[in-house]
C-alpha cells in the first residue's frame, strides 16, 4: 500500500518521496495544531489524558489486528469478543468468584474464541472474512445470552480505580500504559524478529512462505488466538473503566480498529505496512475525535471523519500512483 | 472479495470423504436443501405451538423478510463479483429519512414519486461506491466500510436528533405495508416483483451472466472481452438503488424513522446471503437462494418469539448459522472439485 505504492522514477521524484509514516506524522502534528486552534482546553493535561484513555481498547485490539492483516487475513470478531468478555466478567463476579480468578477465566475465554476463529480458518480452510462475520454475530449473541440487557456495575472500587488513575505524576492514564507496553512488544516482534518477517512473507505469498519452511497454518492459528486474548484483555479494561459489564459493550469497535490499521498504511491484501504507522493513525483518530467533540460535534457525526480517513488512506496513494504513472508516460513520450 | 483463503493443498482429503449420492444431489441444489430446511422449521414450530401458523404471524414474517430479502438480492449481485457492499444499512437509513422529509414538505406526494425518490437517493449513494471501487481502485471492503461511516454520519448530521413520525405520512403510503393485493401484503408484492426481475436478469441475460464470469475469474472475464469496470459499477448502482427502495419501504412499514434506522442491518443481509449459499468468494449464488436464506433467518427470529425462547439467542443462532453455512458450502464445493479432478484424471 502506501509506503511502497509508487515506484520512484526520477531523482526529482526521489527527493519528494514521502513514506506514509512521515506523512502520518505531519498529519498528527497538523491535527494537534487544529485541536489547539479549536479549543483552548485541548492542550491541558486532563484533556490529553482523555485522548489517550478514549483510544485504549481500540489501540490494544489494533495490535494483533495489524499482525493478522499483515498476514492477509482479517478478524472482524474482536469487538464481539470484547463484549462477550465483559459480559462473562459480570456473570463470573456475580457468581461470587474473586476478581483475579474471574479475570483469568475471561482471558481463557478470549483465547477459546480466538481458537475457534483460527481453527475454522486454518483447519477447514474457510475465508477469514466470512468466518469472522459469523463469529462477530455469534460472540455478540453469546454476550447477550450471558447478560441479556442487564448490567453488572458493582465491581470492587480497588479494581475500577485502575480505570481512572493516572501514572504517578503524569497525565498518562494507567490503562494506557498497557497499550504502551503492548505496542513496544508488538513492534519489536513485527519489525525486529524473524517471526515478524515471516508474517510479511505469509501476507505477500502464503504458498512461497510455506515452501520456504514457514509453518503458515500454525502461525495463523496462533495469531487468531492472540487476537482473542488481547480482545478479552481489552474487554476487562473497558469493563473496569466504565464500571459496567454489559452485553453491548464495544459494539461496532471492530470497524474503528480496522479503519485505524488500514489508515496506518497496512495493506488489506497483506504483506505491507508497519506498526508505527498504525500507532500514529490511532493517535490521529483520537486527537481529531477529541478536538471535534470539544466543539460539540456529536460523536455519531464524527464517524464521517473515520470514514474519510479510511478512504483517503487507500485513495490518495492510488491517485498519486496513477498520476506518477501518467507523468512517466508523458516524459517518455517527450523524450522520443 | 478482497481476501481469499490461500490455495494451498490442505488436509482436506482427510476431511472430505466421497459423498453419498443424495448428499451430492443436495449439494448441487442448495436451493432445494434450503427449502426443506425452511419447511422443517415452519413445521416444527407449528407443531410445538399451533398458534404460530396463523395468518397474522405469516404476514409479519413476510413483511419483515421482504425488506431484508430485497437488500440481500442487491448484496448478491455485488458478492457474485467478489465484492461486498457494507454500506447498505446506512443507505437504507438515509433514504428512509430523505423520503420522510419529502412527505413533511409535500404531504400529498404521490406514492410512486416517493418510491422513485428513495431509489434516486440509493442510486446517488451507489454511484459513490461504484466510483470508489471501479475508478478509485479502492478494495470494496474498505470503500463500503468507509461509506458506511460517512453516510451514517451524514444521516446523523442531517437528522440532528429529530425524527419522522407516522402521522406525517399520507394514508396511501402507509397502505404499502398495511394494505394487500389478493391477500398478499403490497410491500411483499413489490419486493417479489423486484426479486423476480433480478433473478431473471441474472439467469437469462448476457449482462447477468457477466457477474458470474467476473466473480469466477476476473482476469479471464477481462480477457473474454467483458467490460469489468462497467459491470462492477452497475453492480454497486443496483445494490444502491435497491437499498434506496428498501429505505422507502422501511418508512412505510415502520412509520417512525430517526438517524439510527437500519443500523447494523448489513450484517443480517450478509448473513442471509451466506446462509442462502451465495459464495463470499464470488461466482456462485442465486437470488432464489439468497431469498430463501433471508426467509430462514426471518422465520427463526419469529419462531424464537413464538417458542418463548429469549430473543437474546437470536444473534448467537444467526452467527452459528453463518459459520455452519460457510463451512458446509466450502467443504462441499471442495469435495465436488476433487471428484471432478479424479474423474478427469482417471477416466
Topology:
The complex is a heterodimer of chains A (336) and B (347).
Chain A: H1 11-16, H2 20-38, H3 45-54, H4 56-70, H5 78-94, H6 99-122, H7 128-147, E1 151-152, H8 157-160, H9 174-192, H10 194-204, H11 206-211, H12 216-242, E2 245-246, H13 253-263, H14 275-294, H15 303-335
Antiparallel strand pairs in A: 1-2
Chain B: H1 12-15, H2 21-28, H3 30-48, H4 55-80, H5 88-105, H6 111-135, H7 140-159, H8 171-178, E1 180-181, E2 184-185, H9 186-204, H10 206-216, H11 218-223, H12 228-254, H13 265-275, H14 287-306, H15 313-346
Antiparallel strand pairs in B: 1-2
Helix pairs in contact in B: 3-14, 4-9, 4-10, 4-12, 4-13, 4-14, 5-6, 5-7, 5-12, 6-7, 6-12, 8-12, 9-10, 10-12, 13-14, 13-15
Summed up:
The complex is a heterodimer of chains A (336) and B (347). With 336 residues, chain A is mostly helical.
Summarize the structure in words.
The complex is a heterodimer of chains A (336) and B (347). Chain A is an all-alpha fold and 336 residues long. Chain A has one domain: Orthogonal Bundle (ABC transporter involved in vitamin B12 uptake, BtuC). Chain A has helices spanning 11-16, 20-38, 45-54, 56-70, 78-94, 99-122, 128-147, 157-160, 174-192, 194-204, 206-211, 216-242, 253-263, 275-294, 303-335, and strands at 151-152, 245-246. A two-stranded antiparallel sheet of chain A has the order 1-2. Mean pLDDT of chain A is 87; it is low at 1-16. With 347 residues, chain B is an all-alpha fold. Chain B has a single domain, classed as ABC transporter involved in vitamin B12 uptake, BtuC (Orthogonal Bundle), CATH 1.10.3470. A two-stranded antiparallel sheet of chain B has the order 1-2. Classes of the chains: A mainly alpha (336), B mainly alpha (347). At the A-B interface, helix 7, helix 11, helix 13 and helix 15 of A face helix 7, helix 13 and helix 15 of B.
Amino acid at each position: 500500500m502506501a509506503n511502497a505504492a509508487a515506484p520512484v522514477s526520477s531523482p526529482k521524484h526521489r527527493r519528494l518521496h514521502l513514506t506514509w509514516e512521515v506523512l502520518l506524522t505531519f498529519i498528527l502534528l497538523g491535527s494537534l495544531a487544529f485541536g489547539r486552534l479549536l479549543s483552548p482546553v485541548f492542550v491541558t493535561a486532563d484533556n490529553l489524558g482523555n485522548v489517550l484513555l478514549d483510544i485504549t481498547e481500540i489501540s490494544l485490539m489494533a495490535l494483533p489486528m495489524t499482525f493478522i492483516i499483515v498476514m492477509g487475513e482479517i478478524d472482524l470478531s474482536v469487538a464481539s469478543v470484547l463484549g462477550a468478555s465483559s459480559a462473562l466478567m459480570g456473570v463470573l463476579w456475580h457468581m461470587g468468584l474473586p476478581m483475579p480468578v474471574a479475570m483469568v477465566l475471561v482471558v481463557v475465554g478470549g483465547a477459546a474464541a480466538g481458537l475457534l476463529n483460527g481453527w475454522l480458518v486454518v483447519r477447514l480452510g474457510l475465508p477469514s472474512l466470512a468466518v469472522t462475520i459469523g463469529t462477530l454475530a455469534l460472540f455478540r449473541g453469546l454476550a447477550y445470552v450471558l447478560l441479556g440487557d442487564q448490567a453488572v456495575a458493582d465491581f470492587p472500587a480497588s479494581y475500577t480505580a485502575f480505570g481512572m488513575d493516572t501514572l504517578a505524576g503524569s497525565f498518562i492514564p494507567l490503562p494506557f500504559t498497557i497499550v504502551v507496553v503492548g505496542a513496544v512488544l508488538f513492534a519489536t516482534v513485527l519489525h525486529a524478529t524473524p517471526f515478524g518477517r515471516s508474517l510479511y512473507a505469509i501476507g505477500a505469498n502464503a504458498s512461497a512462505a510455506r515452501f520456504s519452511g514457514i509453518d503458515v497454518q500454525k502461525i495463523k492459528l496462533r495469531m487468531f488466538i492472540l487476537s482473542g486474548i488481547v480482545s478479552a484483555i481489552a474487554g476487562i479494561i473497558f469493563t473496569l473503566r466504565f464500571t459496567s459489564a454489559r452485553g453491548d459493550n464495544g459494539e461496532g469497535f471492530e470497524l474503528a480498529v480496522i479503519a485505524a490499521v488500514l489508515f496506518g498504511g497496512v495493506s488489506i491484501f497483506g504483506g505491507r505496512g508497519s506498526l508505527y504507522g498504525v500507532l500514529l493513525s490511532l493517535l490521529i483518530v483520537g486527537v481529531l475525535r477529541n478536538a471535534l467533540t470539544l466543539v460539540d460535534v456529536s460523536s455519531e457525526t464524527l464517524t464521517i471523519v473515520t470514514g474519510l480517513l479510511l478512504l483517503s488512506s487507500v485513495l490518495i496513494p492510488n491517485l498519486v500512483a496513477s498520476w506518477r504513472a501518467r507523468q512517466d508516460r508523458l516524459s517518455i513520450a517527450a523524450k522520443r | 472479495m478482497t481476501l481469499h483463503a490461500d490455495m494451498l493443498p490442505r488436509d482436506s482429503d482427510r476431511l472430505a470423504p466421497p459423498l453419498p449420492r443424495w448428499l451430492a444431489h443436495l449439494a448441487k441444489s442448495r436451493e432445494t436443501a434450503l427449502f426443506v430446511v425452511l419447511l422443517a422449521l415452519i413445521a416444527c414450530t407449528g407443531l410445538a405451538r399451533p398458534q404460530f401458523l396463523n395468518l397474522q404471524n405469516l404476514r409479519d414474517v413476510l413483511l419483515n423478510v421482504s425488506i431484508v430479502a430485497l437488500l440481500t438480492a442487491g448484496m448478491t449481485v455485488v458478492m457474485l463479483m467478489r465484492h461486498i457492499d457494507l454500506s447498505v444499512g446506512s443507505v437504507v437509513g438515509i433514504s428512509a429519512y430523505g423520503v420522510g422529509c419529502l412527505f413533511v414538505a409535500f404531504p400529498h406526494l404521490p406514492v410512486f414519486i416517493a418510491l422513485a425518490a428513495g431509489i434516486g437517493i440509493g442510486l446517488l449513494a451507489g454511484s459513490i461506491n461504484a466510483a470508489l471501487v471501479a475508478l478509485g481502485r479502492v478494495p470494496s471492503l474498505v470503500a463500503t466500510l468507509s461509506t458506511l461511516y460517512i453516510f451514517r454520519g451524514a444521516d446523523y448530521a442531517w437528522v440532528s436528533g429529530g425524527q419522522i413520525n407516522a402521522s406525517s405520512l399520507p394514508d396511501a403510503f402507509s397502505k404499502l405495508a398495511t394494505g394487500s393485493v389478493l391477500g398478499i401484503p403490497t410491500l411483499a408484492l413489490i419486493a417479489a416483483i423486484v426479486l423476480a426481475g433480478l433473478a431473471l436478469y441474472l439467469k437469462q441475460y448476457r449482462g447477468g451472466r457477466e457477474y458470474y464470469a467476473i466473480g469466477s475469474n476476473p482476469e479471464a472475464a477481462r480477457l473474454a472481452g467483458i467490460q469489468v469496470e462497467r459491470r462492477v459499477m452497475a453492480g454497486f448502482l443496483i445494490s444502491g438503488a435497491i437499498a434506496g427502495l428498501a429505505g422507502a419501504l422501511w418508512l412505510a412499514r415502520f412509520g417512525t424513522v430517526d438517524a439510527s434506522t437500519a443500523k447494523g442491518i448489513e450484517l443480517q443481509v450478509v448473513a442471509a446471503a451466506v446462509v442462502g449459499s451465495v459464495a463470499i468468494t464470488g461466482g456462485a449464488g442465486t437470488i432464489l437462494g439468497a431469498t430463501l436464506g433471508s426467509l430462514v433467518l426471518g422465520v427463526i427470529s419469529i419462531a424464537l418469539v413464538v417458542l418463548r425462547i429469549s430473543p437474546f439467542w437470536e444473534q448467537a443462532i444467526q452467527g452459528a448459522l453463518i459459520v455452519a453455512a460457510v463451512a458446509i458450502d466450502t467443504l462441499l464445493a471442495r469435495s465436488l472439485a476433487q471428484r471432478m479432478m479424479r474423474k478427469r484424471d482417471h477416466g
